[in-house]
Amino acid sequence: MGNSGSAVKVCADHQGGINWLSLSPDGQRLLTGSEDGTARLWSTADSQCHGHFQGHESYITFCHLENEAAFTCSADHTIRKWDVVTGQCLAIYRGHTSIVNRILVAKDYLFSGSYDRTARCWSVDKEKQIQEFRGHRNCVLTLAHYSSRDVLEEEEEEEEEEEKVSRDLLVTGSTDCTVKVWWVSSGRCYQTLLGHTGAVLCLILDAPNRELFSGSTDYTIRTWNIVTGEQLKVFKEHQGSVICLELVNRHLYSGSADRTVKCWFVDTGERIQTYKAHKHSVSTLKYHAGILFTGSGDACARAFNSRSGVLQKIFRGHKFIINCIQIHNELLYTASHDGTLRIWDIRGICKRNKRRLKKERSVQGRSSQKGSLSRLFNNKVGCMVQQENGE
Known about the structure:
- By secondary structure, the chain is mainly beta.
- The chain is 13% helix and 48% strand.
- The strands form eight sheets. Strands 1-30-29-28-27 form a five-stranded mixed sheet.
- 42% of the residues are buried.
- InterPro entries: Quino_amine_DH_bsu (IPR011044), WD40/YVTN_repeat-like_dom_sf (IPR015943), WD40_PAC1 (IPR020472), WD40_repeat_CS (IPR019775), WD40_repeat_dom_sf (IPR036322), WD40_rpt (IPR001680), WDR86-like (IPR044715).
């Protein structure tokens, strides 16, 4: 394990902690949302700040970046849309009566969840509220979206006519310990998923497999069938709140306040690996090319071999909790409550990991070949025995 030395670049333009970091779909830009009430746009090509979005009257809780537009939500109860080229505020979405915690952009919809106990759906272009989702008994912390076309067979889609207008569904997780699934078109609650005994902090959706994963302050992760609402499995080994989730190739990674990340095989519920070394809560994680990157309340980011669990590198330099990480072109971006965005070169780690994977595949290939030769030899011996016995 090596130490990272220092970051390639430290961007210290914000005057307050950075609460979120979003990467555009084309990978050309990054967006940071800060406690200073502003958002900043960064180029991944030159790591320079190319936009400063000002207008919110309180701190920004979350941000989302598309290729041509940026979205921010704030403790000032509003959501704003920004032009990434001019920096102009294109729209202000008003209606929430408390802090807006989270936003999600899907198709032409903008979804939001708030401390006012509601989630809302807005038309991205018309600056208009389309729907309000009311039913949670406490604040809405996390959101997910899918279409019933992704998960339902035709015979299962016999819903009311109003639901057929739009088959989009919104999933909300709340501090009231429940997950709710809503029809977007009507605002009607399709199902309430009961089982958690603590606040639901994170959601991750696997629509092709009809599964939803939820992490909670009750120390568990639960997986649900999003068609029937049935609870499928409970992952129980964490000793602290489950803060973040990542799903890759049927492997679920969970970061916790117990200072560990765990890897689970989704199909069996088996815990495969535990990643230790954090000295505080694991606040964020990201899987990339066989490496698990984590950010922690101990102000460090770390890189682990995802298969072996071996710690490969520690990225030191931040002063406070790392709230979010992104990866692009073998650069690691870390955003912290210390107000800085730091950029780290991870080419060396990625290269070493690729060599290791190549070597492992080669060994597996030789083992497989030996197995095939062994089976061929045993088959021949079997045939000879049968011939000698006159069978």
